[in-house]
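Late entry, evening session. Most of the bench is empty. Finally got around to the prediction I had been postponing all week. Sequence below, unchanged from the version circulated by S.P.
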Amino acid sequence: MSYTIEARGLQKKFGDFTAVHDVSFGLESGEIFGLLGPNGAGKTTTLRMLSGLLKPTSGEAFVSETSVQQEPTKALAHLGFLTGDMDLYRRLKPEELLTFFGELYQTPKAELKARVSYLMKAFDINDFADRHCEKLSTGQKQRVGIARTLVHDPQVVVLDEPTTGLDIMASEFVLQFIQKVAKQDGKTVLFSTHNLTEVERLCDRIGIVDRGRLVYLGTVADLLAQTGHQSLAESFFHLVGGSTKVEI
């Protein structure tokens, strides 16, 4: 089977502490996949290994069937990654920032100009295009950040808690974006979120990580049947031992 993004036995150790133990899964084009787990379970570490920001202690990550560890430039050309702690370049305006990142990915000049114009319109960025990024609201920054992940037209989009800190309108914009790029544009979306309602609304499949191990991989419906519970929240707590510190 051909996967757009795949984890094969990913493990990450920090000294004597193993943050991620032998995590494996593969995603297909058009799939929306949610990664869930308690605080410190290893979700962000897994996403960072898949996105080339962390080197695995063992195992390998693949994007578009290309090894992130062996051929990072080729693999990551097909991936867009957004995480909550990635700040925008404050002294740049949105169009300048998108153009800058497009050039980093060596997007052809004519193609890049058209791509930036399309994203500025699609994400309603033109309404605040004359402001420097440091002057933007949280929701406006998130729109620019997501557009930045798409400027090189990647096949895979990885979002680490994309709605954290956003108001209802901004969160809804992000959720509709996830739905569109997967189901209309055929891209693969891998995301983590604190909101189980978002997971139930969007995800084709989910993975639950607990103490660095993948303890469930499948659909929400199958999880409910497996655990005998009526809600995703009950099933989640059942698997992770009733932890009250949930970071999903």
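Two things to note before I forget:
The beta strands are 5-14, 17-27, 32-36, 58-63, 66-67, 79-83, 156-160, 188-192, 205-210, 213-218.
Confidence is low (pLDDT under 50) at residues 243-248.
Will write this up properly tomorrow.
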